[in-house]
Amino acid sequence: DLALYESFNGIVLAEKEGNDIAACLGSKKAALLQNHGLLTVGGSIEAAVFWFISLEKCCQAQLMADAAAGGRGHETVKIHDDDAAFTYKTIGSPMAGYFSAKPLFDVLEKECGGEYMQ
Predict the structure, then answer these.
(1) How far apart are CA 86 and CA 65, in angstroms?
(2) Are 98 and 50 in contact (CB under 8 A)?
(3) For 117, which DSSP code?
(4) Contacts of 97 (CB under 8 A, 6+ apart)
(5) Cβ atoms within 10 Å, residue 98
(6) Would you give per-residue pLDDT tens digits along the chain (118 residues)?
(7) How would you label 14-35 residue by residue, b for 16+ Cβ within 10 Å and e otherwise?
(8) Counting beta carbons within 10 angstroms of the beta carbon of residue 7, is it exposed (0 to 12), middle (13 to 18) or buried (19 or more)?
């Protein structure tokens, strides 16, 4: 559920690049903008935020695992496609994204009194 956008040219100021990124993203919920960073979308702000936070954490963990394994002359062990598909079905839905981020927004609401929404 991740697209790779390989021709990222910096801050998207031109309509064409925005359209190109959207076309690359298609129906996926996340894109890796090569040599730049991550982009996520969702049916709600909560879902898009959750996908971003989750993907960022996954990328950090993968980089650390690759570095640790590489430092010892090994490679990381990848999960099986069946396990990935099961995980996607379990927590990859728009509703799961919404409910997973809801506590973060509840904390923001409590700490900021809603100021972040204005």
Answers:
(1) 22
(2) yes
(3) G
(4) 29, 42, 43, 44, 46, 47, 48, 50, 51
(5) 19
(6) 899 999 877 677 778 888 999 999 999 999 999 888 899 999 999 999 999 999 999 999 999 999 999 888 998 988 999 999 999 888 888 899 999 999 988 998 889 887 777 7
(7) eeebeebbeebbeeebbbbbee
(8) exposed
H/E run at residue 19: helix 15-25
One-letter amino acid at 95 equals M
The set of residues, in sequence order, having a beta carbon less than 8 Å from that of 35 and lying 6+ positions away, is 8
pTM for this entry? 0.82
Q: How many residues in the chain?
A: 118
Q: Residue 33 forms beta bridges with which residues?
A: 5, 37
Owner of token pair 């991740």: 2
